[in-house]
Amino acid sequence: MGLNVQTFRKIRQSLIFLIGTLLLFSCGNANPNAGATSTAPVTPSATPEAPPTMNNIIPKPHSVQPAPGGFLLTAATGIHVPSGNEEITAIGRYLAEKLQPATGFNLEVIPASGAPGAGNIYITLEGGDPALGEEGYTLAVTPDLIALVAYMPAGLFHGIQTLRQLLPAPIEQPTVQPGPWVVPAGVIRDQPRFTWRGAMLDVARHFFGVADVKAFLDEMAYYKLNRFHLHLSDDQGWRIEIKSWPNLTAIGGATSVGGDPGGFFTQEQYAEIVAYAESRYVTVVPEIDMPGHTNAALASYAELNCDGVARPPHTGMEVGFSTLCVGADITYKFIDDVIRELAAITPGPYLHIGGDEVQTLGTDEYNAFVQKAQSTVHKYGKRMIGWDEVGRIDLLPLTIVQYWNGPLAAEAARKGAKVIMSPASRTYLDQKYTPATEPGLYWAGYIEVQESYSWDPATQLEGVSEGQVLGVEAPLWTETIRTFSDVQYMVFPRLIGLAEIGWSTAAGREWSEYRLRLAEHGPRLDARNLNYYRSPQVPWV
Ligand code: ACM
Predict the structure, then answer these.
(1) For site-directed labelling of 428, which of 262, 328, 406, 451 has its Cα 20 to 30 A away?
(2) Which atom of ligand 1 lies at the shortest distance from residue 475's CA?
């Protein structure tokens, strides 16, 4: 019985493959850019129906060598993974799940050893090049085989995002599409420029639940982003359960900007987010902002205030007025408990303590507080991250500073700290595209798609050069962002460009070329049903 089924499968597979190959070559070259190299000018396909090329991938890969022909994906295509490797099997299943809705194929994930026969996808660490690092990969497509090889599983996962983008745009549709599903032939060798490629979501000013966060993570993964910074507390809301201080969520979690509904994550829900992110090779970076941006905590516990009086909830948008009582012992018991509980449910190595915009403390008071917070983060086994204001203190060797607006990131870099580049005037996704944009703020300027793309992390800030830059991150503050549709509109397409800035080499990165590739992604954003800003700077197809 088993033999018969196998024989049948083989014959069926060969027939489908033969028909597919005939189809490919009767239609001419599946890849109109065949013979081009990565240095050749990009000629994006003119319509969403045209076969995809190797030249429309975002972020732009390190090297691309197109070849004639293409691989036809069929219902008989197997996804071969090394037997006994759970992690790569899960990556294979992820690929099968992503391809299922539009193709209607239930592609089989087949644990096996060695390269499979013609008509299959091969995912392996065998022969992975260590020179491509933990996140690099090689994707080799011939009419016979798709071989995805990496040194580490994260590289395989990123390679799968590239493979998704090599298929025609309707591959992103949630329902069955006609196909054919041709992957252009060629070889892509790829690896990121920076290790930190992040996005931040402020769930404090407006709360977004687990389903929205997972959808956000899926989009991050598609563009090879790997750090998800969750801004979990602020004046207007406290969003993570701390079991030793339950009022933080009972009281502090109930509010949002403008009187909108509150909300919070239980520790179990947070763990679910962390696990989902991990499955997409994204590290969660939790932030509890302190000593300022703490009104939600100060409203939850009277004893955290120097005068012993609980603050009223804050649902406005002003900043800078709140601070923990930095001279009181209870404050240090509080931050110890919060950091201890948060560190215990955070497997990633980072914990962000904010430290920004404190207008009611003297410099010495501020410095002493942040110094203690840094020791506490370190005690619980994490690397502290702070916004650039923390650059003033004596930094521990592994502390990271996140540049947003001020002069202190360069000071921190001089002291040896690594810097995450989030210049507000380029990366703040809450800033309006133009005066007509609703929602959004504009204190850092209007940030059209070109402005958000046309900068380099190694030359943006005097005193911070390539070797001191850990990477890039785009924060989405949510004072004016009330719905997940608003989130999408402010994020897309700017986050896509940020992903490219973090991943792709600086040499040859040009807006005039990027805008054409971005245009080709319009049908993909449409197919994923995302609300995005159709900037007039981009010739959308
Ligand atoms: C910030 O925008 N206050 C970091």
Answers:
(1) 262
(2) 2
Instruction: Indicate whether 52 pLDDT > 80.
Output: no
Question: For residue 90, which of 227, 214, 275, 224 has the smallest C-alpha distance?
Answer: 275
Q: At 53, is the pLDDT very low, low, confident or very high (cuts 50, 70, 90)? A: confident
pLDDT tens by residue, 149-176: 999 999 999 999 999 999 999 999 999 9
The H or E element spanning position 233 is strand 233-234
Does the annotation count 357 as an active-site position? yes
Of 419, 475, 421, 417, the residue nearest 203 (C-alpha) = 475
Q: Whose CA is nearest to atom 3 of ligand 1?
A: 356
Q: Minimal CA–CA distance to 122: which of 102, 135, 138?
A: 138
Atom of ligand 1 nearest to the CA of 404: 4
What are the structural domains, with CATH classification, of the chain? Answer: 9-190 (3.30.379.10), 196-334+355-508 (3.20.20.80)
356 lines ligand 1 (CB under 6 A): yes
Pocket of ligand 1 contains residue 404 by CB under 6 Å: yes
Give the orientation angle of helix 267-279 with respect to helix 210-222, to 10 degrees.
20
